[in-house]
Amino acid sequence: MSTPNAGRRERIGLYPGTFDPVTLGHADIIRRGSKLVDRLIIGVTTNPSKNPMFTPEERMEMVRAEIARQGLGNVEVRGFNALLMHYAQDLGASLIVRGLRAVADFEYEYQMAGMNQKLNDKIETVFLMADVSLQPIASKLVKEIANLGGDITPFVSAEVRDLVVARVAERANTVPR
């Protein structure tokens, strides 16, 4: 007697991003995306044009801590610095997970999905709408609020908030006067 999944290939998904810092919106997409695949890999990428607050290693550790808090056993975190579709192919991923907050996100992500499909039409892109309460959250805005002394508690976990506040203070103390 065969089992229903006998011979079935593991379904791997990839959720790429800079996660600088990881927000409650990211955590929501990770939780929901993990239900769509056997294994979800969070690909933390470098993107110097986004002026990162944290190193890739620090960001990976933040995401790992968020995954541990959610108890997601089928999610892992890896860093990468390559063309997304090449990385996804190397992982054996059949699915790219992307979160959407607003129409502006959709326009950009739609264009990217089209380009990625031209690069490898065997890897699907799946869009997950952010939870309504989390839609306005963006890492860029979280950093801006923190840099201006605002409270980022509604947008990130307490642990990430503490890391961001500490980094802002650290940067303020190293600015030449």
Alpha carbon gap, first and last residue? 75 Å
Mean pLDDT: 91
What share of the residues does DSSP label as strand, in percent?
A: 15-25%
The CATH homologous superfamily name equals: HUPs
Number of strands: 5
Counting DSSP H or I runs of 4 or more residues, the number of helices is 6
Main sheet record: 5 strands, parallel
Q: Do you know the CATH architecture?
A: 3-Layer(aba) Sandwich
Q: Helix-strand pattern, N to C?
A: EHEHEHEHEHH
Return Rg in Å: 17 Å
Helix content: 40-55%
CATH classification class: Alpha Beta
Q: Which strand order spans the largest sheet, edge to edge or round the barrel?
A: 3-2-1-4-5
> What count of domains describes the coordinates?
1
Low-confidence regions: none
What is the fold named in CATH at topology level?
Rossmann fold
Shape: globular
Structural class: alpha/beta
Keyphrases for this structure?
43% helix, alpha/beta, 177 residues, five-stranded parallel β-sheet, 18% strand, Rossmann fold
